[in-house]
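Today's session is about reading a structure prediction critically. Students often jump straight to the picture, but the first step is always the sequence itself: look for stretches that repeat, for charged clusters, for runs of hydrophobic residues. Only then move on to the predicted structure, which in these notes is written as discrete structure tokens rather than atom positions. Here is the chain we will use throughout the hour.
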Amino acid sequence: MAETIRLTDPQKIDRNPDNPRIIFHQDELEALEDSIRQQGILVPLTVYGDHHKLFLIDGERRWRSALKLGMTRVPVIVQPKPDPLQNLMMMFAIHHRRKDWDPLPSALKLRDLERLFTKRQGRKPTEAELAELASLTRGEVRRFKKLLRLPQQYIDELMTELKRPRSEQVITVDHVLEATNAAAILRKREVINEGEEEKLRKALLRKFRTGTIKSTVSPRLLARISRAVARNEISRTVAHSVALKVINQADYTPESAFKDSIEQADFEHSVEQLVERLIERLEEHQRRRYRPSAALTAALERLKSLL
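Below is the predicted structure for this chain, in token form.
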């Protein structure tokens, strides 16, 4: 069936159940309603037909606004009905192009896409195949799968948060992932146990909510503490002690833990790495039999004086 453009009653259109965008913020809808009230719908909705009902492929915000404004006719482009797998693939392609989707609902739809592919092909898609099906990068697929591995309580909490106006949202997907990763790394290094891992994650999220932790990536300092334990720069006992302070003390942050444990050791380690690279470059300089310039000689004299 060829594409056709026509006017139709928005009451005869229904949302696409596979749309990965399920959160629509009221302030954004109101701005769109104002635009449509003044200029009408300039870009037709894209739909497919299923018996006597039309289903959206693209244009759900425009459709919602038309209903709110009481419009009786909206322009639509009618396309052939896709099969379930094609439908999901189109939904991902449309929203990925616009960069306007929320990660968690999209991750849940990615799981549906994987299930439909598995049902059709008799095997699970590879990461590369799933990325291609969803118009995503492999990194985005891995990030979405991390979200799907979160305990259900955090998924539910994030969904509740997403329904709030953006200006009122405090906890984001990135906050939960950063807290989860930091706690998991410390447990894998046996700095904390399994029960303490969950307590640490909750403590980090609580401090994000209260504003005690300002930076989303602050928990990564705890991962650096874990690496310091692996390099024998600090003891596991010291690392465990500061991790417990993050859990139990309301104003104790990952920055506090970092300062109290490995700030000096971490700084010295970075200096050590720089010195090793300098030595390699100087040895290469000698092998090439270059004559040191006046600037290089002066710099080396300053280094000698400092040492």
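Discussion point for the tutorial: The chain has 14 helices and five strands.
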